[in-house]
């Protein structure tokens, strides 16, 4: 049996939990923008430890609680929608790390496809 897949793009945005955009947590602003633009989905993942460009360590260890834990927002959809989202997010992102990769969607929803 051959598995039918759909080509798509996976956008990852790496930010800090304390990052904001117009008085709102940045991760919320990104997810709400993606939803407004009709993307297939978005997930915010909170990391227990990480560091970025400054090499400052952010950790959730009990003795050293960080209020700025790393977050990764993953967004998946077709290439055109992801490219449009990147354009829309550009003014929001500041020092965020953004990655983009080609993926194959194996299943999405009951019918299995993106659209």
From TrEMBL:
It comes from the Bacteria. InterPro entries: N-reg_PII-like_a/b (IPR011322), N-reg_PII/ATP_PRibTrfase_C (IPR015867), UPF0166 (IPR003793). It holds the Pfam family DUF190. Belongs to the UPF0166 family. This is DUF190 domain-containing protein. It comes from Neoroseomonas eburnea. The lineage of its organism: Bacteria, Pseudomonadati, Pseudomonadota, Alphaproteobacteria, Acetobacterales.
């Amino acid at each position: 049996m051959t598995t039918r897949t759909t080509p798509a793009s996976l956008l990852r945005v790496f930010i800090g939990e304390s990052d904001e955009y117009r008085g709102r947590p940045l991760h919320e602003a990104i997810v709400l923008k993606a939803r407004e633009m009709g993307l297939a989905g978005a997930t915010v993942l909170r990391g227990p430890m990480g560091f970025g460009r400054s090499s400052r360590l952010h950790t959730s260890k009990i003795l050293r609680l960080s209020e700025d834990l790393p977050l990764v927002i993953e967004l998946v959809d077709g290439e055109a929608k992801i490219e449009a989202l990147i354009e829309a997010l550009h003014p929001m992102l500041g020092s965020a790390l953004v990655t983009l990769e080609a993926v194959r969607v194996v299943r999405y929803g009951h019918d299995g496809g993106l659209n």
